[in-house]
Design goal:
alpha/beta; 6-stranded mixed beta sheet; 45% helix; Isoleucyl-tRNA Synthetase, Domain 1; 597 residues
Length: 597
């Protein structure tokens, strides 16, 4: 029976370009997981979008002399293009400034308000005398009280990842003019996290989390165990979602609170776009559905603690049955960070591999392969340009690409462009086919458990096994004395390659599709990705990335390649990279001296 799987991926701020660390942290693992479950025949809904509100947008907009809308729409458009090029197969990639998201977020706020989980409290907040305005968290920088980093933001220290409030900073300064802000009193609504912890959050975190990564569940339990405090969910800022209460027109809903609501609001938007307004309920109220959140480790408290608390407090929307409540996260497989050449990535210092520029120079599957092989699942990892080139040349080209190309080329030239008919299989033949079939269970278990590096490694090991088989059999020698024996060898290895095509497909969708065609099949392994413009009820228009699963023919099962199937003209799947690429890319980072050491 088909399962319902909701794949929720962290929403990138629409104020900066996306680098490889962002991709391997959430977008790529989520896509691999979604593609695997689609091949299984499960009903997958994969959602995310551009985070259009909050101070990262307003700060940069003021720096550029643009409106927040102009800024986020520019970056949102670039995200749509980027994810389509990279093959991140969102069912819906929208943004948080839609009428739908505003409405849903306000209804979340009101449900928590009516259920007694919000309270008002006055607090001291940074205020710029020179500007005559309150300064939200990211408008304030200073020295981190935990590690001493002098460039800590008012919401978080990028050096030690400690969550902060602006008033905790040592020697705070305004990012607008460098002036020293003062503390003034302002009133806000707070989410009553202590009560939510007592009423169910603590117990939920304690039970049935064996499949969670230890770093995630241990952090979440410790975070709650240390004692939660109420957290403000409104702020003194005009750019954002208005607070749906009279007398609060000068404030908006805090971005940390409403951005996570985007997973639900995007599901509602997707259902409306499909003409099935209640379809989202299959993922949010169905107790058998799995909801999985792919994020970076800096987002663990928001997704493993605060978002479940919000869902518990709201209980349900658009469904009045008391027996139905929101599904809580089934898993939150947060990744650690990917660094670059031994240093943390930094957009402000241009120390990053920007994804759009990398796609201009390299095949998307070469990038996806390396990002998966180096994925920071349980510890921080490094993007190393020499390792990227080495893995591309030795593994993608030398192992997998070489296996497919030499077997297909031999079949195309020596067996009239068809899959040869086999004679009786010997032990070596049967062993390779048995290993190819068994891999679907073992690799599938790794993918279901979000162990993507291990899964990819196992598939590449099978490709190495198939290479050894081909070398041991030597069909180029066999054919000189026994054409039928050579045909059997080629039949067996093409069956293994056909299975490998599917096993590699969640990681390498572009080359797997091309190989699917060369093997003589029709149709698309996966659905169709496209952008569409939607007009909302109030007349506003927005563009989103969408996915149509209907064209998909791929299935998570071993090869059913038949003798006599007509092959297409083979071509290399991957390109060998010259080692000069290493020096060129390091030079782009300003590492000229390191290149000549």
């Amino acid at each position: 029976m088909a399962e319902h799987v909701l794949v929720s991926i962290a929403w990138p701020y629409a104020s900066a370009k996306i680098h490889v660390g962002n991709v391997t942290g959430s977008h790529l693992p989520g896509d691999i997981y979604a593609r695997y479950h689609r091949l299984l025949g499960h009903r997958v809904l994969m959602v995310s979008g551009s985070d259009s509100h909050g101070t990262p947008i307003t700060v940069r907009a003021e720096e550029e002399g643009k409106s927040p809308r102009e800024l986020f729409e520019r970056f949102h458009g670039s995200f749509l293009e980027l994810f389509q090029r990279l093959g991140i197969s969102y069912d819906l990639f929208t943004h948080t400034d839609t009428e739908n998201h505003h409405r849903v977020s306000q209804e979340f706020f009101l449900a928590l308000y009516e259920n007694g989980y919000l309270y008002k409290e006055a607090q001291q907040q940074m205020y710029s005398v020179e500007q005559g305005r309150f300064l939200p968290d990211r408008y304030v920088e200073g020295t981190c009280p935990n590690c001493g980093y002098e460039g800590a933001r008012g919401d978080q220290c990028d050096e030690c990842n400690t969550l902060l409030d602006p008033e905790q900073l040592i020697e705070p300064r305004s990012v607008l003019d460098g002036s020293e802000p003062v503390l003034r009193e302002t009133e806000h609504y707070f989410l009553d996290l202590p009560t939510l912890a007592r009423e169910g959050l603590t117990q939920w975190l304690a039970l049935n989390k064996e499949h969670w990564r230890p770093n995630v569940i241990n952090f979440a339990r410790n975070y709650v165990g240390e004692g939660l405090q109420g957290r403000p969910i409104t702020r003194d800022l005009r750019w954002g979602i208005p607070v749906p209460l009279g007398g609060w027109e000068e404030k908006c809903i805090y971005v940390w609170f409403e951005a996570v609501i985007g997973y639900f609001s995007a599901s509602v938007e997707w259902a409306d776009n499909k003409g099935c307004p209640e379809a989202w309920m299959d993922w949010w109220y169905n107790p058998g559905a799995k909801t999985v959140y792919f994020i970076g480790k800096d987002n663990i408290p928001f997704h493993a603690v605060i978002w479940p608390a919000e869902l518990m407090g709201v209980k349900r929307l658009y469904e009045k049955s008391s027996s139905q409540v929101f599904n809580l996260p089934y898993n939150v497989p947060a990744n650690e960070f990917m660094n670059l050449e031994g240093r943390g990535m930094s957009g402000s210092r241009n120390w990053a591999v920007w994804m759009d520029e990398a796609l201009d120079r390299y095949h998307p599957d070469a990038l996806r392969y390396y990002l998966t092989a180096a994925m920071p699942e349980t510890r921080d990892t490094n993007w190393l340009w020499d390792e990227f080139v080495q893995r591309n040349n030795k593994e993608l080209v030398g192992t997998w690409g070489n296996l497919a190309h030499r077997a297909l080329t031999f079949a195309f030239r020596r067996f009239d462009g068809q899959v040869p008919a086999p004679e009786e299989l010997d032990e070596l033949d049967q062993r390779l086919l048995e290993k190819s079939e068994a891999a679907f269970d073992s690799v599938g278990q790794q993918l279901a458990g979000c162990h993507f590096r291990a899964a990819l490694g196992e598939v590449m090991d099978l490709a190495r096994e198939a290479n050894r088989y081909l070398d041991d059999k030597g069909p180029w020698f066999q054919i000189k004395e026994d054409r039928e024996a050579a045909g059997t060898t080629i039949y067996v290895v093409l069956k293994a390659i056909d299975s490998l095509k599917v096993l590699f497909a969640p990681f390498l969708p572009f080359s797997s599709q091309r190989l699917h065609e060369i093997l003589g099949y029709e149709g698309q392994l996966f659905g169709r990705q496209y952008t569409e413009t939607f007009e909302e009820a109030g007349g506003r228009v927005h563009e989103a990335l969408c996915y149509d699963p209907a064209p998909a023919v791929g299935e998570w099962q071993p090869s059913h390649l038949a003798p006599g199937q007509v092959l297409r003209q083979p071509e290399p799947l991957f390109e060998t990279l010259d080692e000069s690429v290493i020096e060129e890319e390091r030079a782009r980072l300003g590492m000229e001296e390191a290149c000549h050491e």
